[in-house]
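sorry for the late reply, my laptop died twice this morning and i had to redo everyting from scratch. anyway the thing you sent over, i finally got around to it. pasting the sequence first so we're on the same page, its 207 residues, then the predicted structure underneath. double check i copied it right bc i was rushing
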Amino acid sequence: MENQYLPTKTNLLKIKDSIKLSKQGRELLERKRLILMKEKEKYIEQVDKLRKEMKDLFHEAFSLFKQANVDMGINLISDISEEIPKEKSVSIKYKTVMGVEIPSIIFRKNEKKENLNFGFYNTTISFDKAVIKFNEIKEKLIMLTELENTIKRLEIAITKVRMRSNALENIIIPRDEKISKKIQETLEEKDREDFSRLKLIKRKLNN
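ok and here's the structure:
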C-alpha cells in the first residue's frame, strides 16, 4: 500500500474522491479527443479538395507557361522572372482550438498592378494568363500549408490526449482502486477484530 494512504477512513474517502475525479477526467479527455478528431477530419476534407484544385491549376498554368515560352522565348521570360519581387505579404497569427494552438496564415493580396516590375504590353496572352494562374496557385499553396500544419498539430494533440486518457484508465485508476480496496479490507478486518475484542470483554464482565 502507498505510504501516503494509511488504512484510515479519512484516507479511504480521499482515495475514493481521487478515483472519482480521475474517471471524470478520463471522460473529459475522451470528449476532447473526439472533438479534435472531428476537427482533424474536417481539415483533411478541405486538404483533399484543395489538392485537387491545385492539381488542375498546375496543369493549366504549365500549359500556358509552355506556350508563353514558345511565343516570347525563354530568355525574355527569365529576365522578367528576375524582376519579380519576393513575397512579403504573408504573416502568421495563432488561434486556439480546444487548447491546441493553430497557426493562421494571413495573406494580403496585392491588387495594385503598378507594383509589378514588368508591363503587360510586352507579354503575350498565354504569359499573362499563366501569371494569373500561378498567383492563384500561390494563394492556394498558402492555404494548404496552413491546413497541413493544422492537421499535424491536431494529430500531436490527439496523441497526447490519448496517452493521458490511457494512463488514467490503465494505470492511475486501477492503482487507486487497488489501494482503495486494500484500505477497505484493512478497515473491515480491524472492525471485525474490534468487534471480537468487545464481545470477549463483555463475556468476561458478565462472568
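The domain at 49-201 is CATH 1.10.287.3240 (Helix Hairpins).
thats about all i looked at so far, will dig more tmrw
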